[in-house]
Amino acid sequence: MSPTEILFTKLYKKNYLDAITDIISFYEKNHYGLVNFLYFANTSLNNSFENQKNEPEKKYFNALIQWDFLLPDGIALHLRAKAYQRKHNLPRTWLSNLNWTDFIPKFLEFLWKTQKISLILYGASEKTLEKASLELKKQGYNIIHQQNGYEELNLSEINIPKETIGVLLIARGSPRQENRSLDHKNIIKEKRILAFTVWGLLDFIAKSEKRAPKRVRIIHCERLRRFIKNPSKNRRKFMASFSLFSTIIRKIILN
Are 241 and 74 in contact (CB under 8 A)? Predict the structure, then answer.
């Protein structure tokens, strides 16, 4: 199979309630778990998985396929997957939108109600990290370790309390967070950690960034709103996602 086909085969194909159940079941059976997310901009910004030209690109691809769960993030990726399935005569599967901004808070809330958990935070600036940590503590979460994203992740000295699940949130942006998590895969297993790559989630928790209103999220325009609010930060990702829609429109017109 081609790298892209491997990737789309790897993508999780159930809804978010099933994803929560499956991730927890996997952890209970294996005593660790690694959960990643993929959205269309990353398939474009990382030079397409068919043309891995250097070691960081190869490492990023390996990180995606080696993690235990690869959750689809965003409407653009769903359309890209449908186009790929059609082109290669593969079974048509509509993917749920399990974006990290919605999924991770729901997962943590569900887990917090049913299990004892200890959070490990890695990423963002020291200021943002402190604000996110305080907010999570207000919500009742136990933070046992935190490191800003400019330091090397150090899990060796972390002691996770007995009878709790250690949940690691890695917020370093792609492909850094995926590549760094791959570097620490063995110790994540050794420490019995449930790890997630979470992009800019700590910024939202710290309220440094604000979610779009619900009506904007319903019509799948949150990425556009982020671009308008902060074009310098979101230009590359927005334009990469927008390229898919322009391609689809051209095909419709030409056909």
Answer: yes
Query: Taking the model in full, what pTM does it have?
Result: 0.84
Instruction: Please name the residue ranges forming H helices in 115-175.
Output: 126-138
What pLDDT shows up at residue 47? 47
195-229 confidence digits (pLDDT tens): 999 988 999 999 988 765 666 555 555 565 555 66
Tokens describing residue 137:
């503590």
Burial 206-241 (b: 16+ CB within 10 A, else e): beebeebeeeebeeeebbbbbbeeeeeebeebbebb
- Type and span of the H or E element at 236: helix 231-254
State how far the Cα of 240 lies from the Cα of 227, in Å rounded to an integer.
Answer: 12
Quick: pLDDT tens for 52-110.
667 777 888 888 888 999 999 877 777 777 777 777 787 777 788 899 999 999 999 99
Tokens, residue 150: 């400019």
What b-and-e string marks burial along 80-99, b requiring 16 or more CB atoms within 10 Å of the CB?
bbbeebeeeeeeeeebbbbb
Q: If you ran DSSP here, which 8-state letter would residue 107 be given?
A: H
Give me the residue label for tokens 């250690």: 166
Apex 175 CA angle, 234 and 101, nearest 5: 55
